[in-house]
Prior knowledge:
The structure holds 3 protein chains of 3 kinds. By secondary structure, chain A is mainly alpha-helical. Chain A has helices spanning 4-37, 40-44, 49-71, 75-107, 115-141, 144-169, 179-211, 215-230. In chain A, α1 packs antiparallel against α3 and α5 runs antiparallel to α6. Chain B has helices spanning 60-66, 97-103, 118-128, 135-145, 149-152, 165-178, 195-208, 221-227, 251-256, 261-267, and strands at 22-31, 34-44, 49-53, 77-85, 88-89, 104-107, 183-187, 213-217, 230-235, 244-250. Chain B has a 6-stranded mixed sheet, with helices on both faces. In chain B, strands 2-1-4-5 form a 4-stranded antiparallel sheet, with helices on one face. The longest helix of chain B has 14 residues, at 165-178. Helix content of chain C is 71%, strand content 0%. Chain C contains 12 helices and no strands. Chain C is globular and about 90 Å long. Classes of the chains: A mainly alpha, B alpha/beta, C mainly alpha. At the B-C interface, α2, α3 and α6 of B face α8 and α9 of C.
Amino acid sequence: MPRETFQQELDGLISDVLELGGEVEGSLENMVRAMETRDASVASKELGVDVRYKVRGMDIERECMILQARQAPVARDLRLLYTVQSVTNHLVRSGTLCEHICHAIVETEGCERDEDLETALIEMARTARNVFNEGLDVFKNRDIDRARDLQAKDDKVDLLYSEAMNLIANPSDGKGGAPEWRMRAALMVHYLERISDHGVDIGGSAVFLVTGERIEDAMRQYLDRNVDQNGV
Amino acid sequence: MSGTSGEKQGERPPEGPPTLGMKVEELTAFYGSFKAITDVSMEVRANKVTALIGPSGCGKSTFIRCLNRMHEVVPGAYAEGHVRLGERDIYDKNTDPVNIRRRIGMVFQKPNPFAKSIYENVAWGARVNGYRGDMEELVERSLKQAALWEEVKDRLRTSGLGLSGGQQQRLCIARTLAVEPEVILMDEPASALDPVSTQKIEDTMDQLKESYTVVIVTHNMQQAARISDYTGFFYIQNMGDPGRLWEFDETEKMFSNPDRKETEDYVTGRFG
Amino acid sequence: MAQAGTRVTQKGGAEPDFKTSTSARHWLDRVFTGVVFAATLVGLVVLAVLLVDVFRDGLPRIDWQFITSYPSQIVPQTAGIYPALIGSLWLLGLTALFSVPLGIGAAIYLEEYAPDNWLTRVIEINISNLAGVPSIIYGLLGLGIFVSMLEPVTGGESVLSGALTLSLLILPVIIVATREALKAIPGSVREGGIALGATRWEVIRGHLLPMALPGALTGTILALSRAIGETAPLIVVGAAVYLNYAPEGPRSDYMAIPIQIFTWIEQPQDVFKTLAAAGIVVLMIVLLLSNSVAIVMRNRFQRRG
């Protein structure tokens, strides 16, 4: 088959990305478990993992640049390289955010918590992890139909986000938990929302890879219609 | 007095009429009983570069030769369909093919300057077509448009065959420009040249499209991607079939996200 | 089975697959070079011997008187070659006048205009064959057409008839030489001209003819040289064996140098042999001069390009 070496290099690139993705998924899994069980030792496993992820991300980016220089890719090969760089970026950012959350879990071990807020946080973490896994799966299988469903799941995270922000702004009297914990909780809310966004974007990039169109352009029509209906 | 006419590369005198484009309608071309291309329709937009790509034997060269009726010079070859330059069909019975070839010029793959002086190479075509203006000025202007003037202005009376390959090709471009065509057809103009000469030819093409319509056949996909505004992909499904225009679109689309699988396989080099 | 890219020969100590002894091959090479060289020498040596012999006998006999006198059986000492010389020059001029335009024109038609069908191929084959027809056949043809049938026009056994006959004789050679010269011009020249909006004739006149002219002229030189030396056809169409005047016009009687040489050789006396040798030398000088003129013309066309 023509360009066999090039095809092998592309395949190797994708498997590198998926491998990185799997590791980030593992980190997210630990993060969720640490939150559910209040077990800081699980979270401490992820401390410093972002350094490793960044290095891996740079390796992949360098590989992309070399392929670009040597092989002059066009059409689907070009879209693939572009997508790989985009997805890698999302993976590295998600891994870093996960590490920050695990750091916060370790720092607040034993602190007094707001029960409602903690529940919301755990729910958000689970959903964000699911969205992320789903997005990575969509990318792996190039299943662009599921990419649209991801947007819907992200809406759920946005709702949880609003709820959590509300709880942060308005603590129930006496049950607010230690201020240290509340501060960290606020950060975690933001981080989790962004992890979910990264997951959605990873799934969306699969759409670009396969069709050459951005999912936003297809979604824009839908969103514009929504705005008109609400009359805002 | 001829001499410095202040012409930039590619510019023709500002008072010229607007450049014409071409429209091809269901063109089918034969060599005797063998059908080389079938049902090709495309729009060649004025003042743009249109590139034609595709595997060997798909009819790109046959097609481009139909655009200035060079195809029928081969004994037994003929074409059916319509090719319009502006409004007029060049295959109309009342149209003189000799006149068409002045208005639609061609540059060939292997540079083929005449065995005459550089001056005569450029002037001969114009003279034969009855040019009544200042010949020296025309020669200088044409050589400037072809980005060759500076290199040859002191040796216009020496033989054209003494130039390098890249210079010879630019000389061929100059002599084509001297008969003041509307459209310039190029059949793999740089494939026999080194990279530096190729770059010079590509730069020239970029300037030429300001005043002319350009169609180029090329095997070099990066070249097509670099210099063209529109790209047409020719393809044959089975051996012995006539070639078809498989996809035609803006170059950006053809090289980032073509519609058809065969086009994408070809531009990514996965043909085979 | 070897895969693409693997080495064909074995490495490391084993005998390679090729013969190592090369002295036999070189020896054969040298022998062959010697053989072809000898073949060339044979031709040259024979020619040299002939020329030396003729020039030794003939050159001393040539003087202004020889060139300007009339031949004589009775007084060979004052015989000259004048009428034959002028006759040959007339023949040369008229033959060139007819055969060159006709030959080049026919070649242009066959090469550039004629359609690729059976008729054209028949014509081509026959022209090649005509080049090999014995010259005396052309003489008979000339006798029938130019001397008898066209007598009112040509004046019968005139230098015009002789020139026309010779033209027919050398026409095929000129046509073939010109065609080869045209064939040698790559198609890209024609394409380049046509692509500029020129008609076929404009391309021929502007490019093909100038480019083919050197080759065509070379063929013409060879053909005319042959014509000057022809004897048999001229005898048939009535060249005189003795005249005491030179031709005054195309319809006039005439002599030719080869015939004059032939007449002299027929005489047994030695003095006539010397005359014959002198005649041969004159013929060769005429040949040389006419060839030189043609070569100069060819070079001028080649340079002008």
